[in-house]
Amino acid sequence: MAPLEQKVLFILGGGPRIGHSVAKKFLSQGYKVAIGRRNIEKMDLDGVLPVYVDVTKPETIEEAFRKVESRLGVPNAVVYNAAALTFPPEKDPFGVEPAAFTRDLTINVGGAYTALHHATRLARLHNISPLIFIATGNVTPFKVNPLAVTLGPGKSALAHLMSLGSTVYDAKEFRFYFASQVTETGGPVPYPQVSGEAHGEVYWKLANEGRNHWDVRFTVAPDGSTGFA
Ligand SMILES: NC(=O)c1ccc[n+]([C@@H]2O[C@H](COP(=O)([O-])OP(=O)(O)OC[C@H]3O[C@@H](n4cnc5c(N)ncnc54)[C@H](OP(=O)(O)O)[C@@H]3O)[C@@H](O)[C@H]2O)c1
Fold first, then answer.
1. 229 Cβ inside 6 Å of ligand 1
2. Which atom belonging to ligand 1 lies closest to the Cα atom of 13?
3. What digits encode the pLDDT tens for the residues 50-59?
4. Domains along the sequence of the chain with CATH
């Protein structure tokens, strides 16, 4: 594990739910935390460095990593949480405009690749190990959802990148996780039931204890406690 002064978390695409909850959990454990998003003026989270990022623009991701490094230090933990979904017409998934599909795909996975590139280069350059990279997932890579025509392909590619990273790199250097909250039966979680706090708890466990597989599915009990599926 990196020395204490180097414990830095950078969340790309962090808003009031998962992003803020994960930030609070890591802050409470002594981490320095930066959140990257487009509307940084909407962020009112004490102790977190707001950084402008538009994940559809690779140069803003590179610049954001530079800012986080200079202000907080090199991240040893990175969370990719940005996502986009365009609903298709009923029973017509291919009715989504091609430009919307391309834009959503870039947000769902293109930006994640750029973040993977910079996070791994920086960690190597500064001998930070292990680097933990967590992608916020869902079940769309494993269960087809007709409404997720622009989300599912991006999450599937994101899962592929986490699998690829876990296969090729030594876990002592880089660890990759695709973390998805699921229902007790392994299904998709209705949006209102997605728990930011549970993501914070699980991401903290991943950063500290790790898991032996990149595909991490977890459940949240009515009392808020989390379990691995
Ligand atoms: N397990 C499940 O079944 C499930 C269900 C729902 C959601 N999810 C996943 O949870 C994640 C979202 O969590 P949440 O709803 O709680 O979100 P959140 O952390 O509250 O906010 C996500 C943030 O992403 C930022 N963002 C969007 N587009 C961006 C872009 N182009 N560049 C930079 N930042 C961008 C937005 O901020 P700005 O507008 O300021 O940029 C937004 O505040 C997604 O990955 C989603 O797929 C999983």
1. no
2. 24
3. 999 999 999 9
4. 4-228 (3.40.50.720)
